[in-house]
Amino acid sequence: MLYKTERFFVNTYHAIASKAFPRMPVPVPNVLNGDKSLDTLAKHLVDKGIKRPVIFTDSFFSTLPSFQLLIDTLEKKNIDYKIFNDIQPDPSYAIVEKGIAACHEHNYDCAIAIGGGSSIDGTKMINGCAKHNLDPRKITHGLMSMLQLRRKGAYFVAIPTTSGTGSEATTVTVVTDEKTNQKNALVSYGVVPDLAVFDSRLTMALPPHITASTGMDALTHAMESFMSTYSTKQTDEMNLKSIKRIFEFLPRAYKNGSEDHEARTEMALASFDAGKAFSKTLLGWAHGISHQLGAFYKVPHGMGCAISLPHVLQFALPKASDRLAIIADTLGLEGSTEKEKAQAVVDAVFELNRTLNIDSKFDMLKQEDVSAIAKNIIKEGNMAYPSHRNFDSYRHLESFLMERRDFAY
Ligand SMILES: [Fe+2]
């Protein structure tokens, strides 16, 4: 199909979806928040009648003192837990199948995911499949997947140890096919956790570069959600609050994260709010670009978002300066016209990257890959990213990327 014809159908789809999508009743997790909220988790589980949880995490995190905080609280209440610490980055079907078996062996009544996005995302799939005896290899394709995992799994607790993915609030889970390396995303309301626990003790030890990239992932969620044509008054409030928090607290968490409990707590809440918002609005082109930088060059997701975000905002500016100007007002940025305020936001994101020692350029791009990368981004993004400004052709996106390969702010 000609690109322009395809765009016509996509625009029509988004015009309809923008009315329906934000009205969908996306479940929202309850929250335990505070300096020592993990200590109250066990009581919460006992009150819920939970006796046999399985804890999902990765092998490294399970050796850390922060993991022991969770174990201590469960043991104090004599809860009969089982640990599954085989979660890996971008969990595969094989890992998900092992996790399902662990649930059945333990006759589980609760799934507790503690870790980064992969631990929480993987547990979403494991929990839904274990509870309803579903084969994960058969349910991660197309609309049928949404129907098959629409029923909730066992009581699900998500304890994020980074502040960025927002996975504790979202409807998305991703599983990787180990044979083809293809990532299969599944969207279902049934996978949203019942409870999100934020305890700043878990994020205090995050190294600065991870704090920076995961924090910029959260900012990209909030900004792309705000810039989505699906945005609503409710999502705007969440996103603006999140954006303001991140501009204030991410530099603090980056510079002094091992001592600044307030910055860590605020970043966790900012990430959570952005996750709730983008479950209703979807995201934008910075995510499409980041996914391909990850697939082609192993650029970590948050870093790909950080690099792409200011360029995508600059690209959107001519069509969405009013939206950017609202962000400028929230951040107290100067400008005598709407356009000046919008430009101030773009400049502020470049500046934030500089503060976090992130180079805002696509210097990993190889000329020979650009055509395939642009095709993949548009294939994913036309339907997934409801944006105010889109690319006119594959060539348009290729030029956009190549022109920014050596860009130095
Ligand atoms: Fe993201």
TrEMBL record:
Quick check: keyword Cell division in the entry? no
Which GO-annotated molecular functions does the record name? alcohol dehydrogenase (NAD+) activity; metal ion binding
Which residue numbers delimit the Alcohol dehydrogenase iron-type/glycerol dehydrogenase GldA domain?
30-199
Q: Where is the Fe-containing alcohol dehydrogenase-like C-terminal domain?
A: 211-380
- Cofactor needs: Fe cation
Asked if the record carries the keyword Oxidoreductase, the reply is: yes
Which named protein is this? Alcohol dehydrogenase
What's this protein's family per the entry?
A: Belongs to the iron-containing alcohol dehydrogenase family.
PANTHER family per record: ALCOHOL DEHYDROGENASE, ALCOHOL DEHYDROGENASE 4
Alphabetical UniProt keywords: NAD, Oxidoreductase
Top-level taxon of origin:
Bacteria
The organism named in the record is: Vibrio inusitatus NBRC 102082
